[in-house]
Design brief:
2 domains; ten-stranded mixed beta sheet; eight-stranded parallel barrel; 9 helices; 28% strand; binds alpha-L-arabinofuranose; alpha-L-arabinofuranosidase activity; EC 3.2.1.55
Length: 484
């Protein structure tokens, strides 16, 4: 039993909608099959993009999509992915399964996808194996409104008006798959490459440098010191693992201790953001520079009989806990975390959606993003009080609605929580939830609605200023409190 006081007039910063970003890499079946089926496909599509996926992603209001990688980004040559499809050069995806792809999904198709979903664009450029000129011309191709060699080429390929590139990443994991660089060298390369990421219009491009791997605080220090003035954001990657010693533990049928070890690993995100942010504060006390957590989520064993290089994993109520707890951490660090992109959108790692032929299912993680969507661009609200060990929540306010999202990751016990809301008048409360009954409960193509969001009624509003909620074990509950 826990008690909290909501101080609804005390606002603790705006939760950027970009925290709800997605990541779509040319990896396994994320782009090909997951998003792109081609115009000739029997699967309902518009301009080659499957509509079941678009519709599901529109419903959770995806604000931004990062593309084309990941490790793939540093081997991607954008000019191979434009123009008539039959003339496009194929390429070997050396990072992910060694498969050959035909480059039919390129720049134009990516912008089409974002337009259909209503998302903004985060392009990740190639530093590892690409040139400064190549990166610079890509930006010119996408954003130059007037006449220029690249803008004219874009028009020849069917797009008159420039697109808006909101975010641009200069390399990915440059300490690893993106070139195995040392931070001093990368910081210099970053300064050089970003110089030629030009602004061709009033729309300022938010430039993101490749940041540290997990707890590489030295990388952060060097980058902030040597390149801090030239960047808007620095990326951070952290994946939750169920075992530190043995990578890739099963996504389903796991023992009880791995329920908690995966959650503990995810909760490390708080420490990482706090410590990296402390280093950033030294060089950027005003928190102008964003920490961009552009890869996060659980990394588990692939499904049996699937290509290990495709990273196709199942998604259970445990993943829903990971999503909810991690989003709560991002909310609390809203001053520093300007964007986050869960890995990845479809069919890869902790995905929103899984597809098989013409079938598509929503994962437990999808439902958390659905339950949490009110927090986008809302004000984080102050709360005081003491709770139990396995419960965590976010309370935010937007348009006179307080959204209270609670995660109870206890395996057996519900938590009765009372929220005192004395400083405002409550007129009504409605609620929804995702409630697990087994710790590896998940949806399958045979049983797609095994675990879905439902209406939730186990709460009481007393005298219009005290709300008692009985939060079931293994659940995420969102209450929408209308205030006057
Ligand atoms: O998301 C899968 C991979 O994980 C990305 O390509 C890479 O950046 C990271 O190591």
């Amino acid at each position: 039993m826990s008690k909290f006081q909501i101080n609804s007039q005390r606002k603790l910063g705006k939760i950027s909608k970009y925290i709800y970003g997605q990541f779509a890499e040319h990896l396994g079946r994320c782009v090909y099959e997951g998003v792109w089926v081609g115009e000739e496909s029997n699967i309902p599509n518009v301009k080659g993009i499957r509509q079941d996926v678009v519709e599901a992603l529109r419903a959770i209001q995806v604000p931004v999509i990062r593309w084309p990688g990941g490790c793939f980004a540093d081997e991607y040559h954008w000019k191979d992915g434009i123009g008539p499809k039959e003339n496009r050069k194929s390429m070997v995806n050396t990072n992910w399964g060694g498969v050959t792809e035909n480059n039919h999904f390129g720049t134009h198709e990516f912008f089409e996808l974002c337009e259909q979903i209503g998302a903004e664009v985060y392009i990740n450029g190639n530093v590892g194996s690409g040139t400064v000129q190549e990166m610079s011309e890509w930006v010119e191709y996408m954003t130059m409104p007037g006449q220029s060699p690249m803008a004219d080429w874009r028009r020849e390929n069917g797009r008159d008006f420039p697109w808006k590139v909101k975010f641009f990443g200069v390399g990915n994991e440059s300490w690893g798959c993106g070139g195995n660089m040392r931070p001093e060298y990368y910081a210099d390369l970053y300064r050089q490459y970003q110089t030629y990421v030009r602004h061709y219009s009033q729309d300022k491009i938010y430039k993101i440098a490749c940041g540290p791997n997990v707890d590489d605080y030295h990388w952060m220090e060097v980058l902030m010191r040597n390149a801090g003035h030239f960047l808007d954001g620095i990326s951070l990657h952290h994946y939750a693992l169920a075992s530190y010693w043995e990578n890739k533990r099963p996504a389903t049928g796991f023992p009880e201790e791995e329920w908690f070890s995966l959650i503990d690993s995810a909760l490390k995100m708080d420490e990482l953001i706090t410590k990296h942010s402390t280093i950033m504060d030294k060089y950027d006390p005003d928190k102008r520079v964003g920490l961009i957590v552009d890869e996060w989520g659980s990394w588990l064993a692939v499904e049996p009989h699937t290509n290990p290089g495709f990273l196709y994993q199942q998604n259970t109520i445990r993943d829903a806990m990971i999503a909810s707890l991690t989003l709560n951490i991002f909310h609390r660090h809203n001053e520093r975390v300007h964007m986050a992109n869960i890995a990845q959108m479809v069919n890869v790692l902790q995905a929103m959606l899984l597809t098989k032929g013409d079938q598509m299912i929503k994962t437990t993680t999808y439902y958390v993003f659905d339950l949490y969507k009110n927090h986008m661009d809302a004000e984080l609200i102050d709360v005081t009080g003491l709770g139990s060990d396995h419960t965590d929540f976010t309370i935010s306010k937007k348009d006179n609605v307080l959204t209270i999202s609670i995660c109870n990751y206890d395996l057996n016990n519900s938590d009765e929580i009372t929220f005192d809301i004395r400083d405002t008048q409550v007129s009504s409360v409605i609620a929804e939830a995702l409630v697990g009954t087994e710790m590896d409960q998940h949806n399958t193509f045979e049983n797609p609605d095994n675990l879905v969001k439902t209406n939730f009624t186990d709460f009481n509003l007393n005298d219009n200023h005290s709300l008692t909620v009985n939060v079931p074990p293994m659940s995420v509950v969102s209450l929408y409190v209308q205030t006057t």
